[in-house]
Amino acid sequence: MPEKYYTNKSAIIGLCATVIFVGVGISTSLYQKGYFKEKKAGEYSLVDVAQHNKIDDCWLIIDRKVFDMTESSKAHPSMFTCGGDGSENYHKNHGPVIRSRMDPFLIGKLDDDAVKQLSAKQEVKTATASVEGAEINPHPELFVVEGSWNPLDLMMVMERDNHSLLVVDGSTHKTVGRINDIGFQPHTQVFSPDGNFTYHISRDGWLTKIDLRTLKEVKHVKVGTISRGTGLTDDGKFVVIGNYEPKKVVILDAESLETIKSIDLFDTRKGEIVRSRAGAVVEHGSKVFVVLKDLQSVWVIDMSERGFPVTNYYWNIGKEGDTLHDAYLTPDGKYFIAAVQGSDYVWVLDTKTMKEVARVKTGKTPHTGPGATWGNVTFVPALGEGLITAIDMKTWAPKASIKTAGPGLFVRSYHNDDSYPYVWADAPLATKGDDEIYVIDGKTLTLKKTLIPMPGKKAVHPEFSRDGKYVYVGVWGGNKIYVYDSMTFEVVTTIDAVTPTGISNVGLRVEEPGL
Question: Coiled-coil intervals in this record (predicted)?
């Protein structure tokens, strides 16, 4: 795949997610005793790298090259474990090659001894570690009587570092149970039209079908090595999974979880095969929209036609080197909106005419998340700065820019009641202020209230209860869920959880197009 070109600051966002630290286990005394040979300029030992293990002095190894990521670490201190090898995690999130946007941060490479030592340690790690992708065993741990809840009221909480889903009754705020061993870093899920089943994908490619009336597993299957997007057709018949590796979309029978078809994601227009990871997977009616993350493209699969053909191809969405990431549908299902990271705009498609409507400028590195609209305005946060862009859906022009403490991931509105006046947002990537949650006035497009659930602890992903009376917020670093009154903004209760990240209400997600 040709190298991608990015700006300096986009590199700060590019190396995201938690970087895995492979301990070097080498005493600094060995270095002081002259254990290592004299090195050429720009060559480093593992000890050299390990000494730069602080937020304000952060070096990382990627593919035996050494990068000074101090600037990025200062901006996003919770995302890095500095002083070690981040190769594995980098490639999981950014593809098989080091992108050119990392060039400004390259300071050298490992010396020969370091290469040998790192290779030896990796062999040990591979042989002894509990590897991502290993067989899973999803099973429920119930805290109440089985079936004593309405599945539509359930709040499904992804416990990222616990390989589990926490299940809370949103009508009582009581923890119903936990679904354990559901895969490495639970990522996305969709729900059957009746709300009785959830289809969950983990980052290591395990798709699990859960009966929400009992929390028991129906079946689990391996659909990829590294997976992200999940879609379920509106009729509930087919599950569609988007993979990073292999670079395919997988279509399965929702009843049996048998694979029906795989679609390779690639481009041959320049005379060679260039493949792409799948970004967002969004369903609407008989169509499934797939974002091709690395090819600046969106494909549309028609699920009503025999063989599930790709019927629409949209190319040149952004410039070469841009990354297309997440996307969402407006609540009426009329518009499909995708984030174009690099060119810093969202791309808008009319789902009825299937024609491009607009390209609207946003903050740096837009991240749409599941989407939020209020009236004729839709809201788009940004990964590159503390800015939420409010876009007029009549003129398709920015209407307001709402400043926050730093980069955000999710913004949510309550689409079941047009009279509800507020939109909620987070800023978990802020250098200072990642503990803040924002309440935006939909009428004035200004901040109504700034909430701090747990001072100093990262707050993320506000989600409404089914009736709209409450908003759940995950406090990642504090292992808590805060439940707020959606009108008074007072804390109603807190709930214990292990690294809570994504939160979904079953009833709302069933009713909301594309989710």
Answer: none
What 3-state class would DSSP assign to 92? Answer: helix
C-alpha–C-alpha distance, residues 495 and 498, integer Å: 10
Percent of the chain with pLDDT over 70: 86
> For the segment 287-322, what is each residue's pLDDT rounded down to a tens digit?
999 999 999 999 999 999 999 999 999 999 999 889
Q: How confident is the model at residue 141 (pLDDT cuts 50, 70, 90)?
A: very high
Domain ranges of the chain: 10-128
Pick the CATH number of 10-128 from 3.40.50.2300, 3.30.70.260, 3.10.120.10, 3.90.170.10: 3.10.120.10
Smallest CA-to-CA distance from 281 within 309, 300, 308 is with 300
Distance (Å, whole) CA 8 – CA 81: 21
Query: What was the pLDDT predicted at 77?
Result: 46
**pTM (2 decimals)?**
0.78
Pairing of strands 470-475, 238-245: unpaired
**Contacts by 489-494 with C-beta closer than 8 Å and gap 24+?**
489/439, 489/449, 489/451, 491/453, 492/173, 493/173
Q: How confident is the model at residue 8 (pLDDT cuts 50, 70, 90)?
A: very low
Long-range contacts of 199-202 (CB under 8 A, 24+ apart): 199/230, 199/232, 199/239, 199/254, 200/165, 200/230, 201/227, 201/228, 201/229, 201/230, 201/241, 202/136, 202/163, 202/227
